[in-house]
C-alpha cells in the first residue's frame, strides 16, 4: 500500500498509528502541507478533496478521508467492535472528531506551529477556534468520566482518531491541564503495545 | 424510536429520508435550531455535541451524528453495499460531506434563511464559505461525471447524506445551474420510490 502522507498531519498520523498496530507494511509519498501547488498533479485522480492522507491499495484503488481509511483497515480487527450499536458509536465519535475536534484543534495548530505565516490567523478567529476547541475537549472530558476508552471497554479506531489532534493540541496553545480524564486517556493510549509517536 | 428533530435541518432530513425509505415508524421531538437555550436540558445526557439529529432507540440508547445514524439504520439494507471497498467509499463520501459540504452549504443557508439575524454572517465570511462551498460542489460534479450514484451503481446512504444540503443550497445563494451532473443526480434521487421532500 502507498500512503500519501505528511509527517506533521494528525489525520495522516491516525493512519500510520493503526498501520503500526496492525503491523501492515506500507510505503509513503511525502506531501507538503504548506506548499500545495502540486496537489492536483499528485492527488487529482485519487482524492476529491486533494488532501492527505490518501491511501492507494495494492490493486491501485484509492481511498480518502482519514476516518474512512481507519474503518477500512480496522474492520474485522480488534480495533472495530462487532456489536452493531458499538460500531455506530465508533462512527459517531469519528464524525464528532472530524466536525468538532479537527476543525478547531488542527487548524489553530497548523497556523501557529506549521504554516510559516501565523499572522494569517487573526486574533478574533483564533479566539473563536480556541473556544470551540475547548468546547470539544470538554465533551471528551465528560464522556471519559468513568470510562477508559470512548466506546466499549477496549481501544478502538475512535480512540486513535481522537488521539491524533488532541495529544498535540498544546502546539496550538491549548492547555490540557484542566482535562484530567483526557490526560489519563492520552497516557493510556500511548502505553498500548505497538504504539508509535507522531514523529516516529 | 424517538428522533430529536428540526424540520429545517438537512442533517435531520437525512435521517427522516432514510427512515421513510426503510418504512420504519418513529416519533419526533422538535428542537429549535435558533433558540438553543434548552439544548442542555433536552440533549445533555444523549449527545455530546448537543445537536440534532439525536436518535433514541427503542431500548433507550442514544445515537448522535447524522451520518453515524444513517450507517446504523442503513447497514444490512440496500442502502449500504456489502463490498468492503465500497463500504469504505460510502464512509469516505460521508466524511467529505461533514467536513467540506456541510460546513459551507449548511452554514450559509442557516444564516441567510433561518437564523433571523443574517447580518451576523459578515460579507467576508460569506464570501469565504461560498468559495469553499463551490469547491465542494465542483468535487461532487467531477465525481458524478459518468456516474449515476456516488458509490457503485445504486443509491446508498452516501447519496442521501450528500443530497440533504446540496438540494437546498440555493436557499443560501448558491447557484446550481453550472453543475449539470449534480442537478441530474438530484433529480434522480428525488425520483426514487419512497422519496420524501425535506418539508414533508
Quick tags:
homodimer; 200 residues; alpha+beta; four-stranded mixed beta sheet; 7 helices; globular
What can you tell me about this protein's structure?
- Two copies of one chain form a homodimer.
- With 200 residues, the first copy, chain A, is α+β, with helices and mostly antiparallel strands.
- Chain A is built from seven helices and four strands; from the N terminus they run βαβαββααααα.
- At the A-B interface, helix 3, helix 4 and helix 5 of A face helix 3, helix 4 and helix 5 of B.
Furnish the topology, listing elements before pairings.
The structure is a homodimer of 200-residue chains.
Chain A: E1 2-5, H1 10-22, E2 27-30, H2 39-43, E3 54-56, E4 62-64, H3 66-74, H4 84-114, H5 123-143, H6 157-166, H7 180-190
State the total count of DSSP E strands of chain A: 4
- Radius of gyration of CA atoms of chain A, rounded to a whole number: 17 Å
Distance between the termini of chain A: 19 Å
Strand order of the largest sheet of chain A: 2-1-3-4
Portion in beta strands of chain A = 5-15%
> Helix share of residues of chain A?
40-55%
Shape type of chain A: globular
Mean pLDDT of chain A: 97
Poorly predicted regions of chain A are: none
Characterize the biggest β-sheet of chain A: 4 strands, mixed
What does the oligomeric state look like here? homodimer
Order of helical and strand elements of chain A = EHEHEEHHHHH
What is the SS-derived class of chain A? alpha+beta
Count of DSSP-assigned helices of chain A: 7
Amino acid at each position: 500500500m502507498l500512503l500519501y502522507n505528511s509527517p506533521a498531519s494528525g489525520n495522516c498520523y491516525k493512519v500510520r498509528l493503526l498501520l503500526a498496530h496492525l503491523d501492515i507494511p506500507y510505503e509513503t509519498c511525502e506531501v507538503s502541507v504548506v506548499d500545495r501547488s502540486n496537489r492536483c498533479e499528485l492527488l487529482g485522480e485519487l482524492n476529491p478533496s486533494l488532501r492527505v492522507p490518501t491511501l492507494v491499495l495494492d490493486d491501485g484503488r484509492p481511498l480518502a478521508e482519514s476516518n474512512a481509511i481507519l474503518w477500512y483497515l480496522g474492520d474485522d480487527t480488534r480495533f472495530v467492535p462487532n456489536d452493531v450499536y458499538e460500531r455506530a458509536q465508533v462512527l459517531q465519535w469519528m464524525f464528532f472528531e472530524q466536525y468538532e475536534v479537527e476543525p478547531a484543534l488542527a487548524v489553530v495548530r497548523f497556523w501557529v506551529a506549521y504554516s510559516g505565516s501565523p499572522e494569517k490567523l487573526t486574533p478574533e478567529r483564533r479566539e473563536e477556534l480556541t473556544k470551540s476547541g475547548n468546547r470539544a475537549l470538554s465533551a471528551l472530558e465528560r464522556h471519559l468520566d468513568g470510562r477508559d476508552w470512548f466506546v466499549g471497554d477496549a481501544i478502538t479506531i475512535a480512540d486513535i482518531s481522537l488521539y491524533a489532534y488532541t495529544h498535540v493540541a498544546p502546539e496550538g496553545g491549548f492547555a490540557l491541564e484542566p482535562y484530567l480524564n483526557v490526560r489519563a486517556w492520552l497516557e493510556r493510549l500511548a502505553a498500548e503495545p505497538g504504539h508509535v509517536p507522531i514523529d516516529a
